[in-house]
Amino acid sequence: MTSPNGPLRVGIGGPVGSGKTALMDALCKSMRDRYSLAAITNDIYTREDSEFLTRSGALPPERIAGVETGGCPHTAIREDASINLAAIADMNAAFPDLDLVLIESGGDNLAATFSPELADITIYVIDVSAGDKIPRKGGPGITRSDLLVINKIDLAPHVGASLEVMERDSKKMRGARPFLFTNLKAGAGTAEVVTFIEKSGGLTPIDVD
After folding, report:
1. How buried is residue 68: exposed, middle or buried, by Cβ count under 10 Å (0-12/13-18/19+)?
2. Is residue 98 in a domain?
3. Which of 14, 79, 106, 184 reaches 20 to 30 Å from 140, CA-CA?
4. pLDDT value of position 1
5. Where is the CobW/HypB/UreG nucleotide-binding domain (predicted)?
């Protein structure tokens, strides 16, 4: 059910390799039968992530857009979000019933944040393989995102990372803001992220009767 304010916009950020595209893929496949949705990816000089989503069958190709940001990818989601806002407008024109747009950021550091003009909800993805110190390093993605996703928990014993330490530090850095442990490759945690988006965004599923 489409909101009079337009589709809900969910920004997904995080370091390279943390699982942003995997989360985009999992969310599309989990939510596409209940909502009218689209996906927009940001890459610096290619459209690799959007092409991955197309190949994986996450959504029909016409519902996936790749934005080439050039230069600094953080600018396209923060200081000047016009290129992404234009992509959303194009999607909304093509699909007037759009309920949800997932926006994957380019970029690779803990300082990347989404402009409030671009994203209604922000999800930040980190992964266990980078070490259990990441949550306590802080940065806007860690401390201010609406949801922190700690991915690749299956790798913890292989890299000497403690999930207990990551949980403790995430609570300390985020206060009351929620976080989730996931293994997106195996599908673990996807349902919890979907529930968070639905509740936080007030989404109403499509009536399939």
Report:
1. middle
2. yes
3. 184
4. 43
5. 10-180
Phi, psi of 199 (to 5 degrees): -70, -45
Residue 204 domain flag: no
**102: in domain:** yes
Question: Quick one: which of 17, 12, 26 has its CA closest to 186?
Answer: 26
Q: What is the CATH number of the domain that holds 159?
A: 3.40.50.300
> Quick one: pLDDT band at residue 110, thresholds 50, 70, 90?
low
Q: What are phi and psi of 46, to 5 degrees?
A: -130, 180
104: confidence class by pLDDT, cuts 50, 70, 90: very high
How far apart are alpha carbons 51 and 44 in whole angstroms?
14
- Amino acid 68: pLDDT: 83
DSSP H/E element including 122 = strand 121-127
**132 occurs within a structural domain:** yes
Segment holding 8, helix H or strand E: strand 8-13
Range(s) of the domain holding residue 13: 8-199
Domain tally, the chain = 1
Q: Are 35 and 99 in contact (CB under 8 A)?
A: yes
- pLDDT tens string 114-123: 888 899 999 9
Rg (CA), the chain: 16
> Structure tokens of 166?
């990551």
CB-CB contact of 149 with 125 (8 Å): yes
Share of the chain above pLDDT 90, in %: 71
Alpha helix ranges (H) inside 57-162: 82-94, 134-137, 140-144, 156-159
